[in-house]
Each structure stands twice: as structure tokens, then as C-alpha cells.
Amino acid sequence: xxxxxxxxxxxxxxxxxxxxxxxxxxxxxxxxxxxxxxxxxxxxxxxxxxxxxxxxxxxxxxxxxxxxxxxxxxxxxxxx
Length: 80
Prior knowledge:
Layout: E1 4-8, E2 15-19, E3 27-29, E4 32-33, E5 36-37, H1 44-51, E6 56-57, E7 62-68, E8 71-76
Antiparallel strand pairs: 1-2, 3-7, 4-5, 4-6, 7-8
């Protein structure tokens, strides 16, 4: 069973939660539409479009989840 992890977005400083099993390559977008996570590799243009939607939560910016000795941290990364 996967554990829930809480992060602080390095862009907007709001908290977000995700399951450890959802960490694949480590790149995520801090955002969800109707409680569905945004594609972790969405383009900057897609993310800017999402921000205009009334049902989006989060800043939609790219975040890299990095595993450290004592857990995970969220770091700023660029759109890829």
C-alpha cells in the first residue's frame, strides 16, 4: 500500500498531497482539474490554459519530487 506524502509547492508555497506510488519519473504539475491530477508533462501553454479554468486547483507549475535519505522534497524545475 502506498503512503500519502505532503509537499509544499516551491512556486506558490501551497501544500499538496500525492501518493508515493504516483511518483514515477519525479516530475509533476502542482494542479488538478476536478480532483484529477494534471498531466505531469503538460506543456507551459497547456498549464496556462488550465489556470483560466474555474475548476482548477494549484498553480499548475512544474515540480520535481526528489528522494532524500529522510524522505522526499519538492524542488522547482522547468517545463520539459
